[in-house]
Amino acid sequence: MKVYYIICEDNNDYRDSLVDFLDEDAELICCGAFANTDKVLDAIISCEPDVVLMDIDMPGKNGIESLKEIKESFPKVQVMMLTVFEDRENIFEAICSGATGYLLKNSSPELISKSIKEVVQGGAPMAPVIARKILQLFQKPEKSNASFQLTLHEQQVLKLLVDGLSYKMIAAKLNIVIDTVRFHIKRIYYKLHVHSAPEAVAKAIRENLL
Amino acid sequence: MKVYYIICEDNNDYRDSLVDFLDEDAELICCGAFANTDKVLDAIISCEPDVVLMDIDMPGKNGIESLKEIKESFPKVQVMMLTVFEDRENIFEAICSGATGYLLKNSSPELISKSIKEVVQGGAPMAPVIARKILQLFQKPEKSNASFQLTLHEQQVLKLLVDGLSYKMIAAKLNIVIDTVRFHIKRIYYKLHVHSAPEAVAKAIRENLL
DNA sequence: TGTACAGCTACACAATGATGTAGTTTCAAA
DNA sequence: TTTGAAACTACATCATTGTGTAGCTGTACA
């Protein structure tokens, strides 16, 4: 199996030595090594790589922007991030934009080599610490309600409001009088620092007070 | 380094042979091997394991339910799923409930052994195909707007509505008359099949028509 | 040249929502 | 027993929203 790859990495020493190492492996064929992202799209057109190794911090357009462009035009090309950044923002942006791998630069060349092959075989290699952080992105912030201190009734009312019910319907659903609904909603607005149903709904969904 | 683990797995042959294999490794110490999830919590209390290997399909309470209970009471215990299931629902449920690893049963014992250690070192080992699917969960459904066909102006108005602006403020912001705002909102409601601002806002956020 | 259509403006009116004030009940702590 | 807070009911009033109807552009297309 031959795997064609391109690398974008502005550190010349790191890039060259990595490519040198990967050249040892007859299955890995480098068809482009760039110090920035300017020519990636052209290179992809001309050499049709399987994988792009992408640094993030580079002069000019950064790696995540470039990733977006690549996935826009060539969704089948797999992009694996190879960077020093391990903060939530970069990780999140990268995987939302379609990266199918995320390694750190302290990875051994052997691991990088193995990972490139894994990507084309349908995997998604990630540095352990990255994998852990990605999973943590799924852990629900556990009803951020804590900070707003909505009572049980207020939560119920808010939920129905989010579901699009009118005051009248909420009252019917909860077997209370419409004035009580008003009362609760006043409280909710006060606690959420909003002044209308749309605002409250938006806040409720975004901070998930469901 | 000693790693204490518990395994829940109803296939006796598989469980026993895996434990036998892992026993070879002096660093791995099994302090519980169960065919169901009944006694896990007790076992965790008495032996304080670092890791729990958890099957999903088991008689009685299934592995994901048990996972939830474990993380509820012992958030620091790491749970790694070890199952044949690789469907989105199970994966999603498991990682949302706090699993920090997800292997498939066709994994080699060596990989399982390595993964147990990786978990306690802050990693999140996943089978390649699982990792890929998890990353795909992040890929945005790309402005589902397609199906609603909102015009540019309608999107603008909707956005401001979501931001909690009143008709008057929206009109001011877009330099149009309030009646035009009404007009757009009528259209939006029609296209979104809703009849009030809260409903529209909820739908806009959930289907992200931002 | 006309006509179809999307986008905008306008007006009207009933329904609903936002907000203030005030009184009642309940329950638990002082 | 009193006090106080939380939850609820009630009423009033003005602002805003939801909806129907209608007329005016400009542009694209037959």
How does this structure look, described?
The structure is a homodimer of 210-residue chains. With 210 residues, chain A is of the alpha/beta class. Helix content of chain A is 51%, strand content 12%. Chain A is built from ten helices and five strands, in the order βαβαβαβαβαααααα. Chain A has helices spanning 12-23, 40-47, 63-73, 88-96, 109-120, 128-138, 152-162, 167-174, 178-192, 197-206, and strands at residues 3-8, 28-34, 51-54, 78-83, 102-104. A five-stranded parallel β-sheet of chain A has the order 2-1-3-4-5, sandwiched between helices. Chain A starts with a strand and ends with a helix. At the A-B interface, helix 4, helix 6 and helix 10 of A face helix 4, helix 6 and helix 10 of B. The first copy, chain A, binds a DNA duplex (30 and 30 nucleotides) through residues 151, 153, 166-168, 176-177, 179-180, 182-187, 189, 195-197.
In brief:
2 copies of one chain form a homodimer. The first copy, chain A, is an alpha/beta fold. The first copy, chain A, has helices at residues 12-23, 40-47, 63-73, 88-96, 109-120, 128-138, 152-162, 167-174, 178-192, 197-206, and strands spanning 3-8, 28-34, 51-54, 78-83, 102-104.
Q: What order do the helices and strands come in, and which of them pair?
A:
2 copies of one chain form a homodimer.
Chain A: E1 3-8, H1 12-23, E2 28-34, H2 40-47, E3 51-54, H3 63-73, E4 78-83, H4 88-96, E5 102-104, H5 109-120, H6 128-138, H7 152-162, H8 167-174, H9 178-192, H10 197-206
Chain A binds a DNA duplex (30 and 30 nucleotides) through residues 151, 153, 166-168, 176-177, 179-180, 182-187, 189, 195-197.
